[in-house]
Amino acid sequence: MKNLPSFDRSRLLATLDRLAPYMTQTLSAFVAAQSPSGAEQPAAEFLEQTLLDLGLDSERIVLNSSLIESLPLFSCPCDPDNGRYNLLARHLPRSRGGRSVLFNGHLDVVPTGPESLWTQPPYVPWVKDGWLHGRGAGDMKGGLICALVAYKALHELGLQPAGIVGFNAVLDEENTGNGTLATLHALQNALAKARLTDFDAVVIPEPFGETLMSAQVGVCWLFIEITGKPAHVAYMNQGINPIEAGIAIMADLKQLESEWNAPAQRHPLFRDAAHPINFNLGRIEGGEWNSSVPCTCTLGLRFSFFPGMTAEEATRQVTQRIRATAARVNAALTVDIRSRGHVSPGCEYDLDAPAMQVLADAHRKITGAPPERLACTATTDGRHFALMTDIPVTVYGPVARNIHGIDEAVSLDSMKRVAATMAQFMVDWCGVEPLVA
Ligand SMILES: [Zn+2]
Could you say which architecture CATH assigns to the domain 218-344? Predict the structure, then answer.
């Protein structure tokens, strides 16, 4: 192509060095735009403006649970729809000849825990020793900013992708995945300006240390409401304690967890993982008074299972164990098990697909070594693309630490490498053309 400014990696890396303050400032403001699951509006508004500043118009894809509730990957919502929306911005090339990519990432973040445990308040981001700290810095606002910085870096080099590049920021990834489900439904059913056929590849920059994801476990949430019989503690034998029953139920579920982790039970891609299946008691509520046998106890459970097992089958086995333990503890206990939050099957990713090989090669060009492959012990929104479409997809994002913990942080050096890899990927996969004057 005539007049195409030359692309070379040393100029790209120098440009990314120049963009370091932009990257840090933009991510800091993004983190400060608090966006717990169910209340992501501030982050959506911030990102909408940031995309606009890059010349990218976003369309809003409003979450409407009634449109998606019959789909197999729908999870019972944890929060009302409330008019909340995903964003989808598209770079449209002049030539239309190049291949395309969609960057997908979530806006929502998990609760911070006690602020007193944080070195600084979780929504007042700070940089120390090359790490940017704050809730959501790693999971996963940093990854979304990497994609924006990669795109901006090409602009600074006088280039733009010669194929469509989409930026999709979604809600409710941490508890259901219904945000990405709503995006896919809109793209598949002509409810948005964009179409699913716009995209030849999907990259999700979740913070898994610059690895390419080869598979992820399935994840389900259950709320287990146990009702016993209250009594004065002086006559404890007349009561039935549902909190103690809950402890017995969790002890037995830990046994099931180790059965599923047993080498013979493992999916082959998870053979070398230290402890791939994790059953977590994440919340507990119950009781009213130290000297009363309590009435009720509710357990908030997250459990995982290997790809190949359906969410229904995993839930059936877990539910059966819960009911068997309760019956053993005391037949008079009542146990009500409700599904709210994740019903998310596991999946494998085809890393031999040409797009994924180009991504792996872009990583090699930037870092000097091929990326490691990760069989992930968490879920990501990648499952929607892997299970509902033929589009090649993987997860590839920066190094982070303490995600879902205290003093969460993302490595700024790693963000720069990931942005460089993304820019290289756009050059190699989409092609480039001169930037519109
Ligand atoms: Zn995440």
Answer: 2-Layer Sandwich (3.30)
The pair of three-digit structure tokens given for residue 101, joined into one six-digit string: 């990519």
Q: Give residue 271 CA to ligand 1 midpoint distance, Å.
A: 24
Query: What is the Å distance from ligand 1's center to 390 Cα?
Result: 23
Hey, which bits of 7-142 come out as E strands? 58-62, 85-91, 101-106, 126-128, 131-133
Instruction: Convert the pLDDT of each residue in 115-147 to its tens digit.
Output: 999 999 999 999 999 999 999 999 999 999 999
Distance 431 CA to ligand 1 centre (A): 29
Residue 410, Cβ neighbours under 10 Å: how many? 34
pTM over 0.90: yes
Q: How far is the CA of 103 from the centre of ligand 1 (A)?
A: 14
Q: What is the pLDDT of residues 18-36, one digit of tens each?
A: 999 999 999 999 999 999 9
Ligand 1 centroid – CA 289 distance (Å): 38
- Locate the domains of the chain by residue range: 9-215+346-434, 218-344
Q: How is the chain split among helix, strand and coil, in percent rounded to 5?
A: 40, 25, 40
Distance 130 CA to ligand 1 centre (A): 21
**373 Cα–ligand 1 center, Å:** 18
CA of residue 107 to ligand 1 center, whole Å:
9
**C-alpha torsion angle, residues 131, 379, 102, 184 (rounded to 10):** -140
Compute, in angstroms, the gap from residue 149 CA to the centroid of ligand 1.
Answer: 19
Confidence band for 98, pLDDT divided at 50, 70 and 90: very high
Q: What is the pLDDT of residues 241-270, one digit of tens each?
A: 999 999 999 999 999 999 999 999 999 999
Q: Are strands 101-106 and 165-170 parallel, antiparallel or unpaired?
A: parallel
Ligand 1 centre to CA of 140 (Å) is 5
Distance 399 CA to ligand 1 centre (A): 12
pLDDT value of residue 95: 82
229 CA → ligand 1 middle, Å: 40
Instruction: With a cut of 90, say whether residue 1 has pLDDT above it.
Output: no
Looking at residues 233-238, what average pLDDT do you find? 96
Q: CA 88 to CA 111: how far, in whole Å? A: 25
How many angstroms is it from 206 CA to the middle of ligand 1?
A: 5
Asked: is 9-215+346-434 a CATH 3.40.630.10 domain? The reply is yes
Mean pLDDT for the chain overall: 97
